[in-house]
Amino acid sequence: MVLPRGSKRPRLGAEGCCGVRVTVHYSRGRCIFARELSLSGPWFGYMVPTLFTRALANIHVSGAGGNLPLSSWWSSKGLGLIPASSQEIETVRQAAFKRRLGLDANDRQKWSALLTENFLQNISLPPEGSVITAYAPVNGEVDVMLLITHLHHKGYQCAMPYVVEADTRLAFLQWTPDTKMVSGIYGIPQPDPTVAKELLPDMLIVPMLAFDERCSRMGYGSGQFDRTFADLKKVQPTFRAIGVAFEAQKFDLVPIDHHDYILDMVVTESHVYRKQKES
User: Fold this and answer.
1) Fewer Cβ neighbours under 10 Å: the N or C end of the chain?
2) What pLDDT, in 10s, does the model give residues 77-134?
3) Domains defined for the chain, CATH in brackets
């Protein structure tokens, strides 16, 4: 096992019959972890490296947007690193939220325009007349109003999320540039449900707090998009979910849980990330 200079030896302990839990106390470099085995002697005499990851600072997940703090984590079926508790997930979420809010407003406007161009040039759109949903941007999210307006004028039926209740799936109400918007339960603008009809999405353009190259998405924590995706799979199995974010929101690894939905793509101002095909 190789550790960066000045670091401490990690502590290893069983987590059930087939996992390990490692707590690391260092700030830079790389660390090599190993899976737990049933051994007759001390574990460190039998170490075989099986998983490589960037070093974390007690612990941090690093990436283009900086570091996200975690304190402990585990690996599962090669899918990546998942925090051990909901409190740790919330710590990551708050750090990502503050980071996005801290981006310069002029930069966000410029990047949103570049992202719109990148989306239209590189994303295969559904047939004309299909339903494409977006959202009303708040709290430093990518401004997709130029994109959704362009799609409307190209002949697509456009819609935006409507929050019925906090713990339910989202509905999607038809939107045009002339649609009357009202404030939802979270204070987010949404189409007036008394005049806008509900539509079934073929493509969803989704905001986020953070993402990684696998197209893992971190949202605000309500789980509404994840529940919506799960329900849509039953009635509209060919839909596509495409995340939009700034490159500054990208991290090496985003913590996910078993119910979190992996997006089909994530589009930024300079790249298009695509979900890895299941082997």
Assistant:
1) C
2) 334 444 447 787 888 899 999 999 999 999 999 999 999 999 999 999 999 999 999 9
3) 11-101 (no CATH), 105-274 (3.40.50.10420)
